[in-house]
Amino acid sequence: MQTLVIGHKNPDMDAICSAIGYAAFKAATGEDNVIAARCGNTNPRIDFALERFGFEAPCFISSVQPRVEDVMEREVVSARKNEPVYDAMTRIGEKRFRGLPVVDEEGRCAGLISGFKISQYLFPPKDRVSSAREVHASLNDITETIGGQLLAGQPESDIRHFVLVVAAMQTDSFQRRLALLDHEKTVLIVGDRKNIQLLAIEAGVHAVIVTGKMPISEEVLASARTCGAEVISSPHDTATTVLLARSAVRAEHMIYDDFLSLPPEMPLEEAQREVALSPQFAFPVVAADGRLAGILSKSDFLKPVPRQLILVDHNELSQAVDGAKDVPIAEILDHHRIGAAPTVVPILFMNRPVGSTSTIVATLFRQSGLSLPGNLAGLLMCGLISDTLNLTSPTTTNVDREVMRELARLSGEDPTALASEIFSVGSPLRTLDAGQAITADCKEYEQRGHRFSVAQIEELSFEPLKTREAALREALEAHRAAHRYDFSALLVTDVNTQNSLLLVSGKASFTRLIDYPEAGDGLWRLDRVVSRKKQLLPYLTGLLARGG
Question: Hey, what CATH class is 428-545 in?
Fold first, then answer.
């Protein structure tokens, strides 16, 4: 089972740092295959923090929606195109499969071979019973399949159409039948009847198979060499030899090449619809290069997906990675309002009213008596600094202050100096285009039947906003319209003055309720407001309650 520790879409510093930190905590407590992940891009400030303390960005996961490759059988039993169908039939019987995929020398899927089709070939219906004497194979394949030994003639690997003839009659009867045969296509199967063997060879049959491991005279072998016939000794009786020789046909001649295959990345829900009405016994999973990656049967849809999530820094599905509703959520670690991602079974849900999820992670290390490495302490400090604006946000608690002191001691970093470095890196309004800037740290909410988004940007001053305001307003409206939100808001916070400007795109019935001082078209001044979750979000939901 793979466990992904993952933050919200458009992750901020705290979402990235807490994902890395909690994955490290789970590993330290002995849990296997726990991976820090992200479902959005990092930004220059996050990249600075990661590089500063020696961490790689968490692996990018665009969607956790269950896919074919999550439940397919990877250890595939297959048949090769150029092998006798007898070998494929043996595997089908041993594994009790209904059939097998057939692959070429490069592992590309050529089709399917079924036990039903093989049985029809070996035991044709009565109206086609004459076909039971025919085999499309090479003499080498026939010799190998019957476990025989070539005693005269040269090995032949060319595929030919042969007719198997059993000599179970008196000599004069055999002579009359021999005259009617196409000698070049005839493979005679006979016991230790020297006169029949010689008659057949001298008449020009292609090959003679002597059954029961009976001795073959030198006279017969010499005649075969002279006439250019092959003589093969079979260790089996005549009936068994015929059956095995028939099964020497190569798998490629018995495949269904009009078959339904699936790509490994196909969503499982889509695959289920695709195969629902198909009569196929199994579905090859084929990679982009045509190679067989796995096999899927309809029963595989009942398998549990070997992946689960631990959500950090959010608990609402609207903010979670795509597909989160389709995989188990094992834990939630958060410090926001409870929007409650639904779960099938009870889980660990730790939601604490502190300034950052990084604070919670650091607290867990301390409570468990686990050593917190200095570089990880520094990274968690970055998450705490970013989410609380270095302990100046109204979301800051005494727990955050205590944790900050502990992280500073463990990392050897001065919080004030580190905060200055963080906020001086990569001004979003200077380095990103308008569309990127309004979604860099953007969250979706639903309240009282209304869907809306709120983004936040921290800057060292409002100066960059002055030249970008029109472009940001246009991008905000495009974002609102594309997602059909009732409104979209962007909070630009000056970390030095601890004031913010709020840009809103939405219906006039809502924006007219905003009672902060106007600072421009669709722009309001929010003094002493710096927290999205504790100050702005309650204010906006209050406006909705008033009928916005």
Answer: alpha beta
